[in-house]
Design brief:
By secondary structure, the chain is α/β, with parallel strands linked by helices. It is built from 15 helices and eleven strands. It is globular, with a radius of gyration of 20 Å.
C-alpha cells in the first residue's frame, strides 16, 4: 500500500495499520473517507474528495481498473461552523507547520493548531510584521524567512515551469508559496497548514464589496479553486512538501455554503462568519484586521514588478513573464 497524505474515517485520523485493516475488510470504505490523500493498493487507486493531494486520477474518485470509477464522498456529520473548523484543524495539525501571514484565515488556524509557524516576505514587509505580532500574541514559535530580489529572480524559472497558468497574480502567489515550502522543508516539515479557500467560502476578496451578484461570484470562485490547488501543490512539491487546507474540509465547506451570501459581507467588512468564529479564539484586533493579499503583503509582487521594469517591461508584467517562458523554452 502506498499512501501520500492522510485518511480520516468518521472523525478519526487513521494510522496506516488501521487503514490497511479497513481496506482488507471492505475496499469500498475509502469512498466514504475524508482527508487529503492519494492512495494505491491491490490494483486500486483513490484520491480525496476535493483533490487536495496530487494524484494520477481525477479528484474525488476511486479506480480499480475495471473501466469505471466510484466517487469519494466522505461520511461526515453536518456540524456548525465553529465545530467544523476546529475539527478540520485538529485532524491536520500533528507534525505540521503553519504558513502564517497575520490575517484572520491563518491566525485562526494557528490559534487552533498550536504548531510552529513560518512567515515569508521581503524584509520589513507587511506580512512579516503582522505574522510576528500574531505569533507573539499566541506564544507560538515563528520562523521568519526574509526573501531578497535576487532569490525571487533565481526562483522564477522553477516557479513558472511548475504552475499550470502563468499570469502576474499566479506567478506572485506561487513565488510566495515557493519560499514558504522551501522554508518548511529546510526545517524538516512535509505538511504545511494554510488558509487557502477561506476567501472563496466566506467572501474575502475586495471585489465582493461592490458586486451585485455575490452568490454567483462565490460559486464561480469556489469552482475555480481546483486550478489554484494544482498551482500551489505543484510549487510545494518542488521541495517535497504539500499544503494542507482546513477550510477545504468538507465539514467546513458545507457549513459555510449554507450561510447566505448576504451575511458574509456586511457594513464593508468581509468574511464576517469566519471572524465571528475567530472571536472565540483570538483578540478582536486580530479578528477584525483587514490584511493585504499574500502576493502584496509579502512584497513578492513588488519584486516581480520591479524585475519586469528593470528588463524593459515598464507596464507589462505579463510581457516579462512571457519573455521568460520563451527564453527558457
Amino acid at each position: 500500500m502506498y499512501l501520500r497524505g492522510w485518511v480520516e474515517y468518521r472523525g478519526h485520523r487513521l494510522s496506516e495499520t488501521e487503514l490497511g485493516a479497513l481496506l482488507s475488510n471492505d475496499p469500498q470504505v475509502i469512498t466514504r473517507c475524508g482527508g487529503e490523500f492519494f492512495l494505491e493498493w491491490n490494483g486500486c487507486r483513490a484520491r480525496d474528495h476535493f483533490g487536495i493531494m496530487r494524484g494520477a486520477i481525477p479528484p474525488g474518485t476511486m479506480d480499480c481498473g475495471e473501466g469505471s470509477t466510484v466517487p469519494v464522498i466522505p461520511d461526515i456529520e453536518t456540524v456548525d461552523l465553529t465545530t467544523a473548523i476546529t475539527t478540520a484543524t485538529r485532524l491536520r495539525s500533528e507534525g505540521a507547520i503553519i504558513a502564517l501571514s497575520g490575517g484572520i484565515d491563518s491566525a485562526l488556524i494557528a490559534s487552533l493548531a498550536r504548531q510552529p509557524a513560518i512567515a515569508v516576505g521581503v524584509d520589513g514587509s507587511h506580512d512579516l510584521r503582522r505574522a510576528t505580532a500574531v505569533a507573539s500574541h499566541l506564544c507560538l514559535p515563528l520562523d521568519v524567512v526574509k526573501v531578497t530580489g535576487r532569490e525571487v529572480e533565481e526562483a522564477l524559472p522553477s516557479v513558472l515551469g511548475a504552475i499550470p497558468r502563468v499570469t502576474p497574480t499566479d506567478a506572485a502567489i506561487a513565488a510566495t508559496l515557493f519560499f514558504v515550502a522551501r522554508g518548511a522543508a529546510r526545517q524538516g516539515y512535509e505538511c504545511i497548514l494554510t488558509g487557502q479557500g477561506a476567501d472563496e467560502l466566506f467572501a474575502g476578496y475586495a471585489r465582493y464589496l461592490s458586486t451585485t451578484h455575490l452568490e454567483e461570484d462565490l460559486e464561480r470562485d469556489f469552482q475555480g479553486l481546483s486550478l489554484q490547488l494544482v498551482r500551489d501543490q505543484a510549487v510545494a512539491s518542488l521541495h517535497g512538501t504539500w499544503f494542507s487546507l482546513p477550510y477545504l474540509d468538507l465539514r467546513v465547506v458545507r457549513a459555510a455554503q449554507v450561510i447566505p451570501a448576504s451575511e458574509k459581507v456586511a457594513g464593508g467588512v468581509r468574511k464576517v462568519p469566519l471572524r465571528e468564529v475567530g472571536l472565540q479564539f483570538l483578540s478582536p484586533e486580530i479578528v477584525w484586521y483587514e490584511k493585504k493579499a499574500m502576493q502584496y503583503g509579502s512584497g513578492i509582487w513588488g519584486i516581480i514588478r520591479n524585475l519586469a521594469r528593470r528588463n524593459g517591461y515598464k507596464n507589462a508584467v505579463q510581457g516579462y513573464l512571457d519573455h521568460l517562458m520563451e527564453t527558457w523554452s
